[in-house]
Specification:
The structure holds two protein chains of two kinds. Chain A is mainly beta. Chain A is built from no helices and eleven strands. Chain A has one domain: Sandwich (Immunoglobulin-like). Helix content of chain A is 0%, strand content 50%. Chain A is globular, with a radius of gyration of 13 Å. Chain B starts with a strand and ends with a strand. The chains are: A mainly beta, B mainly beta. The interface between A and B is medium-sized, with 22 and 22 residues.
Amino acid sequence: DAGVTQSPTHLIKTRGQHVTLRCSPISGHKSVSWYQQVLGQGPQFIFQYYEKEERGRGNFPDRFSARQFPNYSSELNVNALLLGDSALYLCASSLAQGRIGAEAFFGQGTRLTVV
Amino acid sequence: GESVGLHLPTLSVQEGDNSIINCAYSNSASDYFIWYKQESGKGPQFIIDIRSNMDKRQGQRVTVLLNKTVKHLSLQIAATQPGDSAVYFCAELPYNDMRFGAGTRLTVKP
């Protein structure tokens, strides 16, 4: 079975640009969560989506947005990129809504570099 | 604000020895904790979890201990192997949130 897949794996953007990151959950999983992991730190929770609705949001500015599609895949969008947005963006999927992070499987992440 | 933290940023052990990785948390509302392993270039991988109504939970070669009195969590790895080299994170889950610590890098020497 395919695990959580994220695309692209690496990305370089310029300050002020917009970026879209994509995530395909494990087949049958209906919940997707997004995390930002700055180098040398633990991941930070950004969003959780379940059945196409936002179910949880971390402490991130409105420049960050996400959505979930009918096939349960998800996109994370970041507008007006800042240098500080450079990080590994992780997507995790789980079977049901449940607790954020509980029984979640992580993808390998998208490495975003803002220059 | 309350946060999860780790006592040591790095840990080096000899192959075959036991490893102990520590984690301090300060949110008394957290009732669920997870340990993750993250290898270079990969996403976090679930190792073991524990709920606050337990003090100890064992898995294959791993044991998690929870001391609610001092808000301390530890991960014990028995007979550490080279494949255990990675960064280990504890995460606390108060309701509707998930907070990771900064991580401990475990290096296993042959």
